[in-house]
Amino acid sequence: MSANRATEKLLEQGYCIIPDAVPAQVIASLVHDLDPVFYATPFGQGRFYGYKTKRFGSLLRRSRHIEALVMHPVILEVAKAILGDACDRLQLNVAQAIEIHPGEVRQFPHRDHDMWAGVKGLHEYLINVIWPLTPFTPINGATQIYPGSHGAAGLARECLGEPIIAQCEPGSAICFLGSTAHGAGANAGSGVRRAVVIGYSLGWLKPYENQWLAYPPEVAREFPPELAALAGYAQHRPNLGNYEGQCPSILLSSDIPDHIGAIDALRPDQEAMLRGFAETST
């Protein structure tokens, strides 16, 4: 599916499923890397996270194969098309693995943008992508998505309507907007349901996952520059997320000065405004 078509579907119905978005071998290699972490991770606590569900993040330091999902060119193009008008740059909001065990109950239908308290309906806050690591079926807890529940019109609806079941195979990408209501189904099967969730949000928001703790400089130093920037090592103009007044990417250098001078990181319109002010003040 092209980025343009995926964007159209997301804006029209609040979700889309891109089949065969990555090769099966990428998913198999990722599963191999995450297997021991799934086994070692304890179950969560709470009615939202679930008592028979395991979750862990920091995926970029757990498997090199996750980069193919995070930096997927079609997904990034879609995210920029939908979120780009409301921010200067995107950020990685979350990279989390989820394993739903048999007996887990249906998750409460929710909208992921509700983690932030801003006014809703004017623009989207994030886009999430669920990458199944096992087949998603109606029996094992496949995500349930409520078509048309997104955006200002969807938020105004009194009833969510009936959900669709995001039934698909590993390698597919289940994309949905932050304003789209959804929730994991109950796992009534005999095996676990595994997936990875990659989320992209407006760069000026506080992310769900604290990226600088998940990927400290000694870890992010091994990332390609584009990936490091997405994971928090970039400023969002004007001057947001700086380190000592400079882009935090300076921390990825092998020679970090003891004393650092602040440097403006402004949008072009702000630069023009300050230039005009300086010209009228002399």
Walkthrough of the structure:
With 282 residues, the chain is an alpha+beta fold. The chain is built from 9 helices and 9 strands. It has helices at residues 3-13, 24-40, 67-70, 73-83, 151-156, 211-214, 217-220, 225-230, 268-281; strands at 15-18, 53-56, 90-100, 126-132, 143-145, 164-165, 173-177, 182-184, 193-202. The strands form 2 sheets. It has a 6-stranded antiparallel beta sheet with strand order 1-7-4-9-3-2. It has a 3-stranded antiparallel beta sheet with strand order 6-5-8, with no helix packed on it. It starts with a helix and ends with a helix. The relative contact order is 0.18. The model has no long low-confidence stretch (mean pLDDT 95).
How would you summarize what this structure contains?
The chain is an alpha+beta fold and 282 residues long. Helix content is 27%, strand content 17%. It has helices spanning 3-13, 24-40, 67-70, 73-83, 151-156, 211-214, 217-220, 225-230, 268-281; strands spanning 15-18, 53-56, 90-100, 126-132, 143-145, 164-165, 173-177, 182-184, 193-202.
